[in-house]
Amino acid sequence: MRVLSLVCTLNASPARSSSHLLSDQVMREFEKLGVTGETVRVADHHVPPGVGIDMGGGDEWPALREKVMAADVLLLATPIWLGHASSICQRVLERLDAELSETDDEGRLLTYGKVAALAVVGNEDGAHKVSADVFQGLNDLGFSLAPGAVTYWVGEAKHGTDYQDLDATPDEVASTTRTLAVNTHHLAVLLSERPYPPS
């Protein structure tokens, strides 16, 4: 079982990132379940806009796509900006749109059998809206979602504290992070043993 986390912070490495921190916490929960994985900060790569598998001109999405296709679980980690997932998260979904024309010999999308989950951070209310938007996109693209497939932290309205600056992880966040990992892993195992029927 393998998980890929695409961290969709707007900041390239080595800048600190609350999204990356929450992603790391989710990945540690997957490790406890024996799942191996990799984390990629998308802002560190040249991923131009478009809905093709390869947009040319040094597009690094094809290499990232290979990682998505090799994974059983895709975790997206995004901050909230102006009430929405980051533009980089949206770009990942747009680039994954190319998968709608890719099928196996039985007519199934290549993403069928892959399970997705989401980690959201922000300093305003909006995690439910972001998860609703991203979940709909992921489902349209062929990913399956387990119950509790999101973990998030949002602070009080109008405050300036970042998740990465908290003294400790709130118990509620730690609990939802563990639920995300356990349920997502469970569904991924089930789908690996019993794939979806031909389309």
Automatic annotation (TrEMBL):
Domain of life from the UniProt record: Bacteria
Pfam name, any one: FMN_red
Database matches in InterPro entries: Flavoprotein-like_sf, FMN_Rdtase-like_dom
SUPFAM superfamilies given in the database record: Flavoproteins
Domain NADPH-dependent FMN reductase-like per the UniProt entry, residue ranges: 7-148
A single MF term (Gene Ontology): oxidoreductase activity
Protein name: Flavodoxin
